[in-house]
Each structure stands twice: as C-alpha cells, then as structure tokens.
Design goal:
By secondary structure, this protein is an alpha+beta fold. It is 34% helix and 16% strand. It has two domains: 15-227, Creatine Amidinohydrolase, Chain A, domain 1, CATH 3.40.350.10; 230-556, Creatine Amidinohydrolase, CATH 3.90.230. Helix 9 crosses helix 10 (263-276) and helix 11 (339-359) runs antiparallel to helix 12.
C-alpha cells in the first residue's frame, strides 16, 4: 500500500527481515536530517544507520521485542518532543533513547508502531513528517515517507498528519487484546483539544481513549530496558569511543588547570575537547566545583573562582552517536595534594579499585557493590582518624574535682555527631553505581539486584564528603572526593572504559606539573579576565589535539 493510504495493510511475512538486506542507492533516498552512507560515506558503511550498527541489527532488536509482546498486540512509541528554549527557539534535539534503540531515526514528530498477530507474523510501521518545500524552508531536509521506508527497513511508512484516522482504523480493525503504551498521568478533556498545540504523546492518548478500554493498555515498562541493558559488540565499540573522548578531554583539562580561573571556563574547555573529538553533545551538564561545593552532588552554578590549595571536582561525560560515558576526577587546583587531601583521596581510590576488581564481575549486582562500598568506606574513615577528641564530662561535680591532665579523652561517636557521619560517605548519600548506556543514568526501571552479565555497562563512583563540622579535625574539613569511571562487564575482568584519564594521585600531579605554570597562565590569561580571544583559542586547540591523542574518527582521516 502507498504511504498516502489511510489503513495499513499486512505485508508478507518476513518482509521486515528481507528489507534489511536491500542495498540503497543515492537515487532511492533523499538527503535526510541525519548522516547516511551516501551523505557521509567516511562515517557510515553500506546498510549502516549508526556507525557500526546496521539495519539488520536494528531489525534484530525489534524481533527481540516482538518475542516479549503478547499475541494480537500493538506497541505504540512516539518520538521525543521538540523542546523550546523560548517561543520559536528550539533546543538541539535529542531522540527518545527507546525510540532510537529500535529505529536509529533521530527526527522528532514520529511514531513507531509494532504490530504482532502471531509468533511469526509481526510488522513495523512508522509515521513521519512528510517532505515538502515548506518543511525544507523551516527545518531542512526530513526523511519523508519514501526515504524513511528505504533507509530504516520499515514495512510501511505513513504521513504523520494521517495518524489520528489511520491509528484509530488500525486498532478498530484488528481488535487488539493488548496495547503497549506509556500513558501520561493526566488525560485532558477531548472537547477542548487543539491537536496542533499539544504534544504527540497526548494526541495518541486521546486516540486510544476513544477505541481502547483502559484495561487493555499496558505500560511498556522494562521490556525495552532489558534489551538495552546488554550491549552488542557494536554498541560496546560506541561506548568505548564515548568514554575515550570524555577521558582524553578530562585529562587535557586537568593538565591546564590553574587557580583564579572561573569554574565555568574549565567546563567550557572540557566540552570544547569533547565536541572537537566528535561527541554529539555532553551526556550530562558539567558539574565543576571546588572546596566545600564538592560536597554538593549536583552543583551546576559553575560560577566561582577556583581557589588556590583546594580540591576541584568535575563530573560529566560525553555522548557519541547515542551512547554515553560518565567520568569524575578530583584534582588539586595548585598541582599538589595536601597530606589530608591525599589521605582522603587514596581511601576513595582504594575502595573504587577494590570494587571494580572484585565485584564488577558476572554474577554480582549493584546491591552488592553498594553494601561493600559502604563497609569499606566506613572502615576507612575510622582508620583515617578524622574526628577531634572531646573531653568526657560525666557531671559538673566530677569535672570540678578532676585536674585537667586526668580528664579522660575519647573520640566522638556517630550518635554524638547528630547522625551526620552517615552523610560523610557515598553510602549515606547516593548509590555507588548505576546502569549506563544510551542515557548516562540508563535503564532506571531495572532493579539493583539484577545480576551482572557480560555486555552490561555501569558506572562506579564511591565518594567521601566531609563538611565544615566541629567534630572533624580542621585539616579534613570541606574535603569532598568522588572518583568515577565507566565500566563494561566482561566474562573476565571488568573493562575500565574511561582509563585514558589518570586517577592515581601521583600521575595527576605529574600531569599538572608537566605543563609549566607560565604556560598555563598564558592559556588562561584572557579567560581570567572573562575574555576568550582567538589567539588563546588557537593555543588551546593546538595543545588539546596533539596527534598522539587524536581519537580515530572517520571524518578526520
């Protein structure tokens, strides 16, 4: 049936699988709003939709999802809506990771439909924005129905403008027993709806409200998340590239750190490095803090001047063709850790390395990582001897009768600290690990008791956060240390994907001292004044991208 038809027909069985092997030609596909093998031949090979990921792999993902769906069911998944910074000014678009995982299609205003009649009879439909001259003028090239069908292995494509009538006819004609769709908490009154002014998600809800009982609608839930949890070899290659980009950019930023620079300038240098190495965007906003603000987990102001002698903490990552990395490093602003800083840092590093080497293995789980990290950090904090000594005052009369030299001294325990000790390490503040993949905090519906399997990726981030508290010795106050790496679970030892940025304190100090202070001052001369001159930018770019550190990207060849 043509794309302009209003009711989908049932393609022949196996048509979706046959379509994955079709070799596209430049004549058979228009220029669309994402790279193709014809627009970017150095980036994508024949039949690839994403670097390294072919239409066949996307079809295999959908087949795996079909296996989880009930017979006589339909799954409806809209693309992520376009977000607006202000009227008519859009943010750069980022696709719904579930939608991207199943299609590789990165345009907004699209709807994926998977239709399953029997174990072997299932089909893939896609509603997209049709190509026309008005769309070209305002939004550039879009795939349209013809190119989307050819490029993405779709059984049938339809004009999104026909969604209301076509989807309603499809559901009514098939009589589906189950409709998989993530409904929104609130359904608006259908009488007051202007379909052009509401998100696509709500528009689908109103279609379903007219022709499906509420009991038939089931949440997609963990069906897609369970598939995304285990990465294919091609996905792991993208994870490695994302992690390498973030790690090298972090390393180059650390090498250039000097006091009296505004935190946001360091964030800008990191992002500059990631984007120049091919990252699509950052995987999360940069958290860059120093001193007491290291104890604020989501400190995003980034507007303070880096103080000499403090520890700076940066937590962020890169996204490379839909796959994210996560990395945190803590470094001395003047190039050298104090004794107290070094002791706290080494404790966190030792715990992280123990957790990665002994517990990031097949058969363990995040729950075990949390429990062991909590135990190790508590033991380490006690061994550090960070608490002040306090005289024990039994009662006023006894105190008056005792000489000062005979007054018994002991350490403050947790109860006397008002319970604040629980907040001095990550065990009382945040989980030590989370899933990572297409989102930096990925697959949130997957529980922490899920056992690790080869191909899963996690982040490991123990931390110690010592506040300015009277019961803590002065030299340890306001020290916050968190060390984080992106990890791939393998059949053997865990693979540290962000290994290209050092975390050994001696190597960090050597890295910072390898770049003379005079050179660092030169790099940041204008930045300290709030300026970023072309000459300074050229210096940073030249230093950031030496040949030995270049990430091997196709468009750099």
């Amino acid at each position: 049936m043509s794309a302009s038809s209003t009711t989908p027909t049932t393609p022949q069985r196996g048509s979706n699988k046959c379509r994955t092997s079709i070799l596209l030609s430049p004549e058979g596909i228009k220029r669309i709003n994402q790279p193709t093998p014809f627009s970017s031949p150095t980036l994508l090979k024949e039949n690839e939709i994403t670097p390294g990921i072919t239409r066949k792999e996307y079809a295999q993902r959908r087949d795996a999802l079909f296996d989880k769906m009930k017979l006589n069911s339909i799954l409806i998944l809209p693309a992520a809506p376009q977000k607006y910074m202000s009227p008519d000014i859009v943010y750069r678009y980022r696709q719904n990771p579930d939608f991207l995982y199943l299609t590789g299609f990165i345009e907004p205003s699209a709807v994926l439909i998977l239709h399953k009649e029997s174990k072997t009879d299932h089909h893939f439909y896609l509603f997209v924005t049709e190509f026309d001259e008005k769309t070209l003028t305002y939004d550039g090239h879009v795939a349209g129905t013809e190119a989307a069908r050819a490029m993405f292995g779709v059984d049938e494509t339809y004009n999104l403008q026909k969604l209301d009538h076509t989807l309603k006819r499809l559901i009514e004609s098939r009589g589906y027993g189950t409709v998989y769709f993530n409904t929104l908490p609130k359904i608006l009154d259908a009488e007051t709806i202007n379909f052009r002014d509401i998100p696509l998600h709500q528009r689908i809800e109103h279609i379903l409200e007219k022709c499906v009982k509420k009991s038939q609608i089931k949440k997609i839930g963990t069906m897609i998340a369970k598939l995304r949890l285990i990465k294919s070899p091609q996905e792991l290659a993208l994870m490695r590239e994302s992690s390498k980009i973030a790690a090298i950019s972090m390393r180059e930023m650390i090498e250039s750190v000097t006091p009296e620079v505004v935190e946001d300038r360091l964030a800008a240098m990191f992002e500059f490095g990631c984007r120049m190495r091919g990252a699509s965007r950052l995987s999360a906003p940069v958290t860059i803090s120093h001193g007491a603000e290291n104890n604020i987990l989501h400190y995003l102001n980034n507007d303070r001047v880096i103080a000499d002698g403090t520890l700076a903490l940066m937590d962020t990552g890169a996204e490379y063709f839909g796959y994210s990395s996560d990395i945190t490093r803590v470094f001395p602003t003047n190039g050298r850790y104090s004794d107290a800083q070094m002791r706290v840092y080494n404790l966190v590093l030792d715990v992280q390395q123990t957790i990665i080497s002994q517990y990031c293995v097949v058969g363990k789980c995040i729950k075990i990582l949390d429990a062991e990290t909590d135990r190790l950090l508590k033991e380490g904090l006690k061994a550090l001897d960070i608490l002040v000594e306090k005289e024990e005052e039994k009662n006023e009369g006894e105190m008056l009768s005792m000489s000062s030299r005979k007054r018994k001294k002991r350490k403050i325990d947790k109860d006397e600290c008002g319970g604040i000790e629980a907040m001095w390490h990550s065990g009382g503040v945040h989980f030590v690990s989370h899933w990572i993949g297409m989102d930096i905090h990925d697959c949130n519906d997957i529980g922490h008791r899920t056992k690790f399997e080869a191909g899963m990726c996690i982040a490991v981030e123990p931390g110690i956060y010592l506040p300015d508290h009277e019961n803590i010795k002065p030299e340890y106050r306001n020290i916050g240390v968190r060390i984080e790496d992106t990890i791939a679970i393998t059949e053997g030892e865990a693979e540290v994907l962000t290994k290209d940025c050092p975390k050994d304190p001696q190597k960090i100090m050597a890295l910072m001292q390898s770049n003379p202070q005079a050179k660092r001052d030169g790099i940041w001369k204008d930045a300290k004044q709030g300026l970023w001159s072309p000459n300074t930018k050229r210096k940073v770019r030249t230093k950031l991208f030496r040949n030995e550190d270049s990430v091997s990207l196709p468009f750099w060849n």
